[in-house]
Amino acid sequence: MHPDIITYNKTQSPEDQLICQLLAEQIDLHLPGAESKVWHAHPVWFLEGNPIVGYSRRKSGMNLMFWSGQSFDEPLLQPEGKFKAAEIRYNAVEEINTEDIQRWMHKARNIQWDYKNIVKRKGVLERIA
User: Element (H or E) spanning 66, and its range?
Assistant: First the structure.
């Protein structure tokens, strides 16, 4: 795990630390080869420079977000923002279903929109996987 992600996780409340640790472990396990770092102040994993998944603390819980998640056809993931992102929020580590995480990670690798080049394309997203 990237040292900056470990630092980020340690700055969270005790319950959120447990959530962050489990999310990071699951993402690393099911998204092998992904680059991870703290990006825009939050842990994010990338494939070939394209953001795939990340998490951050929000008022209503720890937010797990998939940049292309609206295309996953997963009812537990709620739309986030004006592009293709979707999220789920957790308030306790017991709420996390690792089978869901595994399924979403598989979809995250196979269903991708090109966020890496969104600025170059002036806000237009194209599907790349």
Answer: strand 61-66
